[in-house]
Structure formats: C-alpha cells, structure tokens
From TrEMBL:
InterPro entries: Embryo-specific_ATS3 (IPR010417), PLAT/LH2_dom_sf (IPR036392)
Name assigned to this protein: Embryo-specific protein ATS3A-like
Lineage per the UniProt record: Eukaryota, Viridiplantae, Streptophyta, Embryophyta, Tracheophyta
UniProt entry keywords in alphabetical sequence: Signal
Signal peptide start and end residues: 1-25
Domain of life: Eukaryota
PANTHER family cross-referenced by the UniProt entry: EMBRYO-SPECIFIC PROTEIN ATS3A-LIKE, PLAT DOMAIN-CONTAINING PROTEIN
Length: 191
C-alpha cells in the first residue's frame, strides 16, 4: 500500500513530540522556583538551643508566600559569628546556643523584597532565636533585612515580623496582621 499524497505517519509523530515538549516548557515556566540562603542565629542565653522541628514562612508584598515545614533538614553549614571560617566539616545539629546556621531553601520566587518572616517551633523544649535573614540568590535587591527575635519562641504558632507596607496613623505605623489559614489536616481534626 503506497502513500497516495497523504501525510506520512512519521510527520504526526514528530508533531506530537514537538507539541508535548512545548507544553512541558510552558508548565515549567509557570512553576519557576528560586533559591534562598536563610541565616538563623541562636542566642547565647542558657537553654536557648533546641532540637525540635522549626518551620519557616517568609514572603513579599505580592503574596508570594514560601513555607518550609522542616527547616532543620535544609541545614547547609554552621558559621562561627566571630571567625570568618565556615565550619562545614563538623557535623552538628542546627540551632545550638551561640551559633549561626545557614540553610538552603528552594521555593516560589519573590518579586519584591522579602518583608515578613515567621517561625514555628514544634516540640517540648524552648528555643530563643536571635535573628533571621533571608538572602535571595536571584538578586540582593530581593533579600530581607534582619528580623530580630531575641525571646523564647512560643510553640505551635507562627511567630514573627511583618514589615510589608503599613498605614501611617497619628499613633505610628499600623501594620496589617497576617492570618494564616489552618492546614487541611488541622481543619479535619477540628471537625
């Protein structure tokens, strides 16, 4: 049976493969992720360290919200605050007293500077973080300033700071409070 002027089947196969690969590139552009270096200091107060799970939430004014459920697992290196030397070769747990830890986080891309940071502690012991700084590896203009905690973190709730725009009032700057919806799992437990 010969081809009587019709299009060969191999043409359709090539066309289908081209359309599928074009569709994959369209999907990957919508789900672009960015890298962040998160620096967390634990204060030197006695009992300031923790081995509990710590969650992190940060974002920008454009509703780009990045949530890291277990920040502990993203630990990259421990940095001695008094020495420029990085202490990578020592395997230590993060969030030790008097230490600065760095974490590598991948998440949604921010489009304006990071202006809020919240931490959540899950477990039985206390933790007293000093500061948190989020550095965007996409550009320094998207990085945050320092967020100073310097107090014992409450457990099982998001606690942090929001410096995203505010309204000027006669009593000072009024910041709009962020309310985070409960997860589906938590809502299910309530019902």
């Amino acid at each position: 049976m010969g081809n009587s002027g019709g299009t060969p089947p191999s043409f359709y196969a090539v066309l289908l493969i081209s359309l599928l690969s074009a569709g994959e590139s369209l999907v990957s552009n919508d789900t672009k992720t960015c890298m962040y270096a998160v620096t967390v200091e634990t204060t030197c107060t006695k009992g300031a360290d923790t081995s509990n799970h710590v969650s992190l939430r940060f974002g920008d004014t454009n509703s780009n919200d990045i949530v890291v459920r277990r920040l502990n697992s993203m630990h990259v290196k421990r940095v001695d605050p008094l020495e420029p030397e990085v202490l990578d070769d020592m395997s230590r747990k993060p969030f030790q007293a008097c230490m600065v830890d760095q974490f590598q986080v991948t998440g949604k891309c921010v489009t304006s500077p990071v202006c809020y940071v919240y931490l959540k502690l899950a477990g039985a012991d206390d933790w007293r973080p000093g500061f948190v700084k989020v550095r965007s590896l996409e550009g320094p203009h998207l990085s945050s300033g320092y967020f100073y905690f310097r107090r014992v973190l409450p457990r099982h709730v998001w606690h942090g700071f929001d410096t995203c725009g505010g309204e000027v009032t006669p009593f000072g700057i009024k910041h709009h409070r962020k309310v985070f919806a409960a997860s589906k799992h938590f809502r299910h437990k309530l019902n």
